[in-house]
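ok so i was messing around last nite and threw this chain in just to see what happens. nothing serious, just curious
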Amino acid sequence: MTIERVGVAGAGTMGSGIAQLACLGRHETFLHDPDAAALAAGEERVRAGLLKGADRGRWTREEAEAASARLVAAPRLEDLSGCDLVIEAAPESLGLKREVFDRLAAACGPETVLATNTSSLSVTAIAAEVERPERVCGMHFFNPPVLMRLVEVVPGTETDAEVAGAVTALAERMGRTPVRAADEIGFIANRCARPYSLEGLRLLGDRVATVEQIDSICRLGGGFRMGPFELTDLVGVDVNFEVAKSFWEQSFHEPRWQPSPIQAKMVAAGRLGRKSGRGYYDYAAGPHRADDPEHDPPPANVSEWSGSEAVGLDPATQVAALERIVCQLVNEAAFALGRGIGSAADIDTAMRLGFNYPRGPLAWGDAIGAEGVLSVLDRLRSETGEERYRSAPLLRRRAAEGRRLAADA
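result:
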């Protein structure tokens, strides 16, 4: 299956970013949006982004000009009819995406591959009413697409293997790193990232530490670029809450994914993060925190960290808080591996590239030791009586067998 002409349906931030990557991948690229102003703005974003990348040395000026020449504005959906593959980049609504796919299927004919950029919806559900659903595949880019190298390739129940292979090859030509994810809740990256914000909220709710202290522990002790509350403010407190509720409902109330009342209170108060000027931090007066002090890289085994005076908590409390977050990340990754959501390599790659984690959670679990992770989880489950700390069966088996987590079954 050969993909030469690429269409992008939706000229917003995601759609224009995807179109820019397709142009750089040497594909004639047709960018569509039903709103003329949105299409013009998206086209301008692509061309400006190409020039900016050349100015910053990401590619040459000649490459930028050649890529820009491959971009075609497509005001009518029928203008995508000659494309070999069309990527849908519409808002995250199942009803809306189904409507877009119905129209794409009618406009493009039965041979065109249709890819959805959904981050959380079922690819199988999106494809259910499309003629020849075997040509539909998930192609989840991360925002902003030009900077984030990860693409999750998500075959639906009916997706043809050749279609999934063609989508994977296209992602590679776009200069991205594709991973193969099962069509399950959250795919790989969003699923395995759930404990970062949720366990941070639980630490806050348990009065173990403040927002600022928890974020500092994650940066100084875990090596994360941002703490869970800083990250939530960046993404949007309301967005994070909606995702949490979606996971909770789709999973029929899986205890690991139970939302926090703190999230509901923040949204009710209108504290939605940076976009509203105030979330877990206040952004009205400029930067929300001072730069971190100089510090050595944290050890891979979090229990070996000695804490930091800058956090303002005793070292034992700092280490215990970090262990809770990291061990829950490892546990969620072990659940994903055990359920076949992705391979061990793809899970670790997804978390490093999709969320800029300092290391993949399965490799991190091996640095701590499966038995060490298990002891933290078992202790928390015993102390709290909560099922959110139950261990993944694969984690317990690997601990008993003395096997590495970062290896496939």
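not much to say yet. Strands lie at 6-9, 29-32, 71-74, 85-88, 113-116, 136-141, 150-155, 177-180.
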